[in-house]
Amino acid sequence: MTSHPKSSPTIVSRSLAASGLIPFEAKVLLGHVLRRDRAWLSAHGDQPMTANEAAAFDALARRRRDGEPIAYLTGRREFYGLDIEVTPDVLIPRPETELLVELALVRIDANEHTAVLDLGSGSGAIALAIASERPHSTVLGVDVSAAAVALARRNASRLHVGNVAFLESDWFSAVPKKRYDAIVANPPYVAAGDEHLSQGDLRFEPRAALAAGADGLSAIRAIIASAAAYLSPGAWLLIEHGYDQADAVVAMLRGAQFSEVQSRRDLAGIPRIALGRKQGLIQPSP
After folding, report:
1. Nearest to 90 by CA among 105, 106, 79, 99
2. What ranges do the domains of the chain cover?
3. DSSP secondary structure string, 238-267?
């Protein structure tokens, strides 16, 4: 009788090393498969894996080597301390967008019952972050994509954030006719012909959430043109924009008669957020 040697079991360290990924990405994906954190993986390199676990990790590693974003592979992305579910129907929340949240929060009174509008809400990350930090506020997030709105509502339910709602709307088209104490927006701002849209992670993200006309500014123009009609006197409009668009967006805000117009840089020193205040007297609280 001929005996056949048993194959060695797949172990954590060997699977990570053979993945063809940088260590951080490999650990994120394997941790997702095994439902373990990176610290556990580092401490249990000799842990055997089942055939199904090894196959699942190999499939994810292959997709990542082909360029698919990790957030789509795991279905999760952390944003402002919140565990946000993401799908290919929405843009993946970026760390630099947290500046938009920070700038909005210092302009939203934590002790007042304020109304905040988030335009182009996508996964709901920005609206949920503001609503979580300002529990007395009521936040409305809108998006033209029905799939994005469904996902944002699912995130709100899973995270137990009750002072936020999401609505399908093409910018202001279905927004209730009322005044908001702040409007935030992270709209598409990449030029439609930009070569980067067909490179790297951007290949996998929804084009409608990235591109905005020939110069990348069509969505921002539409927002600025209508925002004042939905803002209370003295309220702020804050918009994320591209690295080379600060001057153009600042000029648009000034042209629309916003005051205290300014541009802010992110942690990398890149111009990221333009903001301006609707002119008029701020009404005192009763």
Report:
1. 79
2. 12-66, 89-278
3. EEE--TT-HHHHHHHHHHTTEEEEEEEE-T
Q: Summarize pLDDT for 230-285 with one digit per residue, the tens.
A: 999 999 999 999 999 999 999 999 999 999 999 999 999 999 999 999 997 655 44
Nearest-angstrom CA–CA distance, 263 and 186: 14
Quote the CA–CA distance of 180 and 251 in Å, as a whole number: 23
- Please state the pTM of the whole predicted model: 0.91
| Assigned token pair, 230 | 């939905």
**What is the DSSP annotation of 95-163?**
GGGHHHHHHHHTTS-TTS--EEEEES-TTSHHHHHHHHH-TTSEEEEEES-HHHHHHHHHHHHHHT--S
The CA-based diameter of the chain, rounded to the nearest angstrom, is: 95
Q: Which two tokens stand for residue 193?
A: 């012909």
Q: What angle do CA 128, 32, 267 make, to 5 degrees?
A: 50
CATH architecture observed for domain 89-278: 3-Layer(aba) Sandwich (3.40)
